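Rotation project, supervised by the postdoc (A.L.). Task for the rotation student: set up a whole-complex structure prediction and record inputs and outputs verbatim in this book. Inputs entered:
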Amino acid sequence: MCLAVPGRVLDIEERDGTRMATVDFGGVVKEVCLEYLPDLQVGEYAIVHVGFALQRLDEESARQTLELFAELGLLQEEFGDPWETAAAEAAGSEPVEEVRNQ
Amino acid sequence: MKYIDEFQDPELARRLLDDIHATVTRPWALMEVCGGQTHSIIRHGIDQLLPDQVELIHGPGCPVCVTPLEVIDKALEIASRPQVIFCSFGDMLRVPGTGRDLFQVRGEGGDVRVVYSPLDALRIAQQNPDREVVFFGIGFETTAPPNAMTVHQARKLGIANFSMLVSHVRVPPAIEAIMSSPNCRVQGFLAAGHVCSVMGVGEYPELAERFRVPIVVTGFEPLDILEGVRRAVRQLERGEHTVDNAYARAVRPEGNPAARAMLEDVFEVTDRAWRGIGVIPDSGWRLSSKYRDHDAEYRFSVDGIRTEEPAECRSGEVLQGLLKPHECEAFGTLCTPRTPLGATMVSSEGACAAYYLYRRLDMPATKTREATPVV
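Outputs recorded:
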């Protein structure tokens, strides 16, 4: 939950009076609210936390961070299935890298 | 510098480390406030690459860890009710309340759902007008603005069956509490980068001046942390104590003004209990009276819950930097990620879980040079 991940804006639309975007996080695509960065444009990067764009980021910084997160398995941790992780832990598996990266 | 090849840019990491080694002449204790930073430090063995004189103390920067037991128990109570759909971030599922957790409540038939964003919970409320949808709103200043916007939207759109159980916490009062403790050893802070992305750096100069402590805004990638340490050590060696931004690519001095304005509208500052630490004045947010209709504490009667912290758990001392995880007698024996006594072990961002995960089990109480990081 604490992770804030850089993503690239693919598409922007208004929904229920709210500015929303489709954002690509290194292959994982999510809907993101742009109300806190209303002037963000398609093609730009931002730091996104729990579905909200919070600060603009330059492309190079975003790309480097995404590559690092992917390498460390942090993207899977952020966007993977938390029920599977919780079930594995409840069943007795320690949350070692193999489990966390499933 | 045995493990430096693991860094994204080993050459830059080496230069930063060389500079830190060349600068240090005396022992210094720095606290990283963000749980993500703690995780990164342990994962990459950064604490072991630093000179012996530089000690990193882990701070209370994991929102999952510091959520008080009483609030977890309130969440479990609300989530057990048949008319309720209880929505949470995934990392709260296995946080122990008194006797059980949200994962078990779901196993007992409770409708507990994991969402990626608080707006997902709002959508669930729209889709289920005959049910009560409650979102578990925890987190620091990074998470509070998304949650604030969601409550604002619920009111704007007239979604009456949506409410939030709010337990937000603020970093600056925690820094103040740590520095005010008579046992405090902290001489410099690595401030949490993404908290500052929202709040800016305006709250820190007064703290830096009053406690004569450098505060360096720091990201959480390995090179960010090395740069934060480098700048903090340089200040300490020169006898300086200013606020410095080492994470400028994501932090502007003013933060995010739109997010801060929404925080002021939806929340009001309140005293907040931190798990294992106790009440810190003005250290949290609750929904302001204007949004009381969407406050789950008012909507559901959950007062009178009696809580009981495990006597063996010393997470409070860990969260304040007074104890390293492996110095706790229960660490790795009574307390593991499978059977956590406290949230510092169950949360993946908790200091105890980070130590356990990266095999710091065998470390003696003093700093060890030769312990091998797993990654």
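Student's summary: The first strand of chain A starts at residue 5 and ends at 15.
Supervisor addendum: Confidence is low (pLDDT under 50) at residues 95-102 of chain A.
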